[in-house]
Design a protein that fits this description.
Length: 458
């Protein structure tokens, strides 16, 4: 046990410097749990301060201004504290989970987004237990996506209106600031965003290929020992210039450019999706383009009713782009009827993705499926995205592991090598989630996260 109450900060650093790595990890986890318990106590206090408007005695017109005055906090910090206090007050299970250390303030902030939506707020107490289960065992990135989906599916009308506002308010600018270029844009919808992103990634990959070729030409077989000629930021800038140049050439040639087809992450099997469309009664006119705005009020109500259900049940639904961006179900239907769809089990060309043990490595559709299921590296705390990832087996091929998405792990190169060197393996618990297991058999868990059970066959 560390004794540090009477130590100066420099002495604390010196004290910790004498400790072994395992002791430092243990101490960090202990302090994290203590901090969460103190945060919960503070939020309980703030909830009462907010209810009674204690700050009015000193002329503060809001709890936010009270916190700013008493704690010299910034406006955003004070506003976040008020949101946290209110969500814990109205859904006490959230405050209790924070107090015992199962979640942190980052997870409380995501739940506060639900509470801040007046059309969804009343659903939070009933859905809190299921949301907290996800919050405890998921990374913050993955839990944020769960909350995004929950907000989308519990407020379909509001989400559709927000999407309309975003499309109406779209904007872009290209200017010169000083002696530098400034490019910015905003608005539109998620499918357009994915199309623009895919176009940029295409040009960025061309710049990467050019750098790889230049390095290979200069250094030959020793090329991998040398850095690429340009940094990522430089390649990204040059890729953007190339996009504009290609667009200009197409305009000179009288060509109407087209954005790439959207690849939407649809976790429906084909039969379910077909039945859903049939029940919705949607038919695409010959030569026409589906527009959700053309649906009658009755059609829209019936369609959205198909997607309804108990709040907790909606947490298992997925309606998002390949990068994990939640999209409105009506946009999904537009993509179904007018764009390309990549399913998890069978791709658009009818290729079977589950290869079983017919292939040793993840390539083609098997690799695409594995990457589709996990948009980022699966090592704890790593957020590197799709371009940097490798697909490997949970159960090694040599031990009978299958080459399909149910036995896949996506990691970027350094963490893939770490997995093998450290003897880590991944196993699914009874709750269906995948967990990393160290070589000594201990489960890799976040601070305050309860260990899962592994009663089922691996």
């Amino acid at each position: 046990m560390f004794v540090y109450n009477s130590l100066m900060f420099g002495e604390l650093i010196e004290d910790y410097s004498q400790c072994e790595d395992a002791a430092l990890d243990t101490e960090f986890r202990r302090l994290e749990l203590e901090a969460r318990a103190l945060d919960a106590r503070r939020l309980a206090l703030l909830s009462v301060v907010d209810t009674r408007q204690v700050g009015r005695a000193d002329g503060h017109l809001s709890t936010k201004s009270y916190i700013k005055g008493v704690a010299h906090a910034s406006g955003p910090t004070a506003a976040a504290a008020v949101r946290r206090a209110r969500v814990c007050r109205d859904a006490p299970a959230i405050g209790e989970a924070l107090a015992v250390g199962r979640i942190g303030l980052s997870q409380v902030d995501e739940l506060a987004r639900v509470h801040a939506n007046p059309r969804v707020r009343d659903l939070l107490p009933d859905a809190a237990a299921a949301l907290l289960e996800h919050a405890e065992h998921m990374s913050h990135r993955d839990f944020k996506q769960v909350v995004d989906r929950f907000l989308m599916l519990t407020d379909l009308e509001g989400a559709w209106n927000d999407r309309g506002d975003s499309v109406e308010g779209r904007w872009a600018s290209v200017g010169v600031v000083g002696d530098e270029v400034s490019v910015a844009a905003g608005g539109g919808d998620a499918l357009v965003a994915e199309q623009l992103k895919a176009t940029f990634q295409r040009f960025l990959q061309r710049e990467v290929d050019r750098d790889l070729e230049a390095r290979r030409a200069e250094h030959g077989d020793q090329a991998q020992a040398f850095p690429l000629p340009r940094s990522y930021s430089q390649r990204a800038f040059d890729a953007l210039v190339a996009v504009f140049a290609a667009a200009n050439q197409a305009a000179d040639a009288g060509l109407d450019g087209k954005l790439p087809p959207v690849v939407v992450n649809v976790l429906f099997d084909q039969q379910t999706l077909s039945q859903f469309l049939a029940r919705a009664g949607l038919v695409l006119p010959d030569g026409g383009t589906f527009d959700a705005a053309e649906l009658s009020d009755d059609q829209l109500a019936d369609l959205l009713g198909e997607l309804g259900g108990a709040p907790a049940d909606l947490l298992d639904r997925r309606c998002e782009t390949e990068s994990g961006q939640a999209i409105h179900p009506l946009l999904l239907l537009r993509a179904v009827l007018t764009e390309r769809i990549r399913r998890v089990v069978v791709n658009p060309a009818g290729t079977v993705i589950d290869y079983g043990r017919s292939a040793r490595v993840f390539t083609g559709a098997a690799r695409d499926a594995a990457l589709l299921l996990q948009p980022c590296c699966e090592h704890p705390g790593c957020d590197l995205g799709r371009g940097a990832r490798q697909v490997d087996h949970n159960v090694p091929w040599a031990a009978g592991g299958r080459t399909d998405q149910s036995n896949s792990t996506t990691l970027h190169g350094a963490h893939n090598r770490f997995k093998h060197d450290a003897g880590w393996r991944r196993r699914r618990a009874d709750d269906g989630r995948g967990y990393w297991i160290r070589a000594d058999g201990t489960v890799v868990l976040a601070a305050g996260e309860r260990s899962p059970t592994f009663l089922r066959a691996s």
